[in-house]
Design goal:
The protein is of the alpha+beta class and 386 residues long. The protein has three domains: 146 residues, no CATH class; 89 residues, no CATH class; 137 residues, no CATH class. It is built from seven helices and 19 strands. Strands 3, 4, 5, 13, 14, 15, 16, 17, 18 and 19 form a ten-stranded antiparallel beta sheet that branches. It is globular, with a radius of gyration of 27 Å. It starts with a helix and ends with a helix. The relative contact order is 0.13. The mean pLDDT is 87.
C-alpha cells in the first residue's frame, strides 16, 4: 500500500496530468472572467480546492474540476517526492538540487501569498489622518463599544456569516444579533420605487426606508453594496430592528447595559499601529492636456509609541514601505480640482512572502549556472587530456 502511494506521487505521468490540468484551468478561468468578473473568477478558480460546474462547460451535468490550490499542492508533493526518491544529495547534483529548491520555494511562496497577503486602499483628504485602510471587496458587520473615551472596542463579523441569516453571538458582546434579511447587492432609498421592498426596520435610520435588491456585480470597476436587517437581542428581549448597509455613511448608536454601542455595515478595515496624515497632494498634467504627468502625496507618519513623526513623499514608482506593508500612489479623486480639499487614494499591500519569488529565481538561476559550468569543466578537462 505504501509503495503504491509512493509510486503515485513520484510518477512522471502525474506531473504531466497536473501540468495539463493547470493549463486547462488557466484557459477556463480566463474565459470565466467574461461572465463572472476578474475578482470572482480569480477567487473561484485559482484560490479554491475544487470548482463546481465551471461556467465554460455549458451543460446541465454537474462537473467538478480541480482548483488552483489542489493542483498546486499536488505539484508540490509530486516534485518533493520525485526529488527525494530519484536524486541523491551529492555535490555532483548540486545544480539539480538548487533548481528543484527554487521551484519548491516558488510554489510555497505563491501559496503563502494567497493565504496571507491582503490588498486594501486608504483614501485621504488633505489634512485628514487615518489609522486604517479598507478592503476593495470584502465587507463586515461591526458592533463598536464606544464607552471608553480612550479607545473603542470593535467586534467584527464577516459578511459571509451575515449572509447565512442566523443569530450571531460573540464572547465580547453581552447581546446577540439576529439577521432577519440580507441583500448581497442593493440600493437604499427613502421612498418606494419599482422593484423596491420595505426594509421593516424599527430603529435608527431604517424606518420608512426601502431596499432595491440588485444582482451581484461582476465588474472589476464596481463593487457590491450589501445591506441587512438586523435585530439586536439582549437578555431582556429585542432592542429593535436596524437597517445596516454600506450605503449609510455613519454608524447608528444604541445603549445597553449602561454602555453606548454603534452598529454598522462597512467595508472591511485593517487597522494600523500608526496614523497616516495627508499633508499635500500634487497633480501635474502635461501642458495643454488633461493627461496626468505625475501625482504625488506628501504624508506624515505619526507613531507616538516609537517617537516617529516624519514626512514621506509617495509618487508613481516610488512607494512607501513601512511596517511590513507597501503604500503605492494608486489614484486620486477625479473631482479634486473642484474640491476644497484634494483627495488621494493609496493602495496598501501586505505580503509577508514578497521575497520568495526573487529568492526562487536566484536559486533556479544559480542551479542552471552550476549545472552548466560543471558540464563545461568536464568537457574542457576531457579536451585537455586528449
Amino acid at each position: 500500500m505504501v509503495n503504491r502511494i509512493v509510486k503515485f506521487f513520484t510518477s512522471l505521468k502525474l506531473t504531466v496530468v497536473l501540468l495539463g490540468a493547470g493549463l486547462l484551468l488557466v484557459f477556463i478561468g480566463t474565459l470565466a472572467q467574461v461572465d463572472e468578473g476578474l475578482y470572482m473568477a480569480q477567487t473561484r478558480y485559482f484560490k479554491s480546492w475544487y470548482i463546481w460546474a465551471p461556467t465554460v462547460f455549458s451543460t446541465r451535468l454537474p462537473i467538478i474540476f480541480p482548483g488552483g490550490y489542489l493542483i498546486g499542492t499536488l505539484l508540490l508533493l509530486n516534485l518533493l517526492a520525485a526529488h527525494i526518491k530519484r536524486f541523491q544529495f551529492t555535490t555532483k547534483k548540486l545544480g539539480i538540487h538548487l533548481i528543484h529548491g527554487g521551484l519548491i520555494l516558488l510554489l510555497l511562496g505563491q501559496l503563502l501569498t494567497d493565504a496571507f497577503s491582503t490588498e486594501s486602499a486608504m483614501r485621504l483628504a488633505e489634512g485628514e489622518s487615518k489609522n486604517y485602510s479598507q478592503d476593495f471587496r470584502d465587507n463586515e458587520l461591526v458592533v463598536i463599544d464606544t464607552s471608553n473615551p480612550q479607545q473603542d472596542e470593535v467586534v467584527s463579523i464577516p459578511e459571509a456569516l451575515v449572509a447565512k441569516q442566523r443569530e450571531i453571538r460573540d464572547d465580547k458582546l453581552p447581546l446577540s444579533l439576529r439577521v432577519l434579511n440580507y441583500w448581497s447587492n442593493s440600493e437604499v432609498l427613502t421612498n418606494s420605487v419599482k422593484d423596491s421592498v420595505p426594509v421593516g426596520a424599527t430603529q435608527g435610520v431604517g424606518p420608512g426606508t426601502h431596499v432595491v435588491p440588485m444582482q451581484p456585480t461582476a465588474s472589476s470597476d464596481a463593487r457590491n453594496m450589501p445591506s441587512a436587517l438586523v435585530e439586536v437581542v439582549g437578555q431582556q428581549g429585542s432592542l429593535g430592528k436596524w437597517l445596516v448597509s454600506t450605503w449609510l455613511n455613519a454608524p447608528q448608536e444604541f445603549s445597553y447595559g449602561g454602555k453606548t454601542y454603534q452598529l454598522a455595515m462597512r467595508f472591511t478595515r485593517y487597522y494600523k499601529p500608526f496614523h497616516l496624515k495627508l499633508v499635500e497632494f500634487a497633480h501635474e498634467r502635461y501642458r495643454g492636456t488633461d493627461i496626468p504627468k505625475n501625482f504625488a502625496s506628501r504624508v506624515r507618519i505619526q507613531r507616538p509609541d516609537k517617537g516617529e513623526n516624519r514626512e514621506v513623499l509617495i509618487y508613481m514608482n516610488n512607494p512607501l514601505r513601512y511596517n511590513g506593508e507597501t503604500y503605492y500612489q494608486a489614484g486620486f479623486d477625479k473631482d479634486n480640482d473642484t474640491r476644497l480639499h484634494k483627495i488621494t487614494i493609496l493602495q496598501v499591500v501586505h505580503n509577508p512572502s514578497w521575497l520568495t519569488p526573487y529568492l526562487s529565481c536566484i536559486l533556479v538561476a544559480a542551479g542552471l549556472l552550476v549545472q552548466f559550468l560543471s558540464h563545461l569543466f568536464k568537457f574542457a578537462a576531457k579536451g585537455a587530456i586528449a
